[in-house]
């Protein structure tokens, strides 16, 4: 189901809670919602569609990847950049890392670990900030 994008700063500042098997429908809604915003958006966190759960989606080419309960376990090479967001107005400065390692669970709640660089790493960091209630 396509969901409206949440712009309520007070809601977006809430720290998300761990996702579980009963939250799989949120992944489907993230996929549907991201697909209608693909021209302007490359990732989303569950709180952007009104769900306070630790779930993100990241466009990494043709197939977006959904990560349940993602945690950045390693960061390398910080740099300053600017980002926009569907939930926020304008472009905002932030610090990101060129390379990150993330531990997460897939739709079947199997554990994974991946190392991501450059643009993909930046998207993942932005979405994980959402999970922590961090507004850039």
Task: Give a written overview of the molecule.
The protein has helices at 9-12, 24-36, 118-131, and strands at 43-45, 55-59, 64-85, 88-105, 111-117. The model has no long low-confidence stretch (mean pLDDT 96). 33% of the residues are buried. It contains three helices and five strands. The protein has 136 residues and is α+β, with helices and mostly antiparallel strands. The protein starts with 8 loop residues before the first helix and ends in a 5-residue tail after the last helix. Strands 1-2-3-4-5 form a five-stranded antiparallel β-sheet. The longest helix has 14 residues, at 118-131. The protein is globular, with a radius of gyration of 14 Å.
- Which stretches are low in confidence, meaning pLDDT under 50 for 5 or more residues running? none
- List how many beta strands DSSP finds: 5
Q: Proportion of β residues?
A: 35-45%
Order of helices and strands, N to C?
A: HHEEEEEH
Work out the helix count.
3
Q: What's the rounded overall pLDDT mean?
A: 96
Shape: globular
């Amino acid at each position: 189901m396509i969901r409206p994008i949440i712009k309520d700063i007070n809601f977006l500042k809430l720290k998300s809670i761990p996702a579980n098997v009963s939250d799989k429908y949120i992944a489907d809604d993230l996929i549907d919602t991201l697909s209608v915003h693909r021209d302007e958006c490359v990732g989303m966190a569950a709180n952007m569609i009104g769900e306070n759960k630790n779930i993100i989606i990241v466009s990494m080419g043709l197939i977006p990847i959904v990560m349940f309960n993602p945690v950045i376990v390693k960061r390398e090479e910080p740099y300053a950049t600017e980002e926009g967001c569907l939930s926020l107005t304008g472009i905002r400065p932030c610090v990101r890392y060129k390379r990150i390692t993330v531990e997460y669970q897939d739709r079947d709640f199997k554990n994974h670990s991946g190392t991501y660089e450059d643009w993909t790493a930046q998207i993942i960091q932005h979405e994980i900030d959402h999970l922590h209630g961090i507004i850039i």
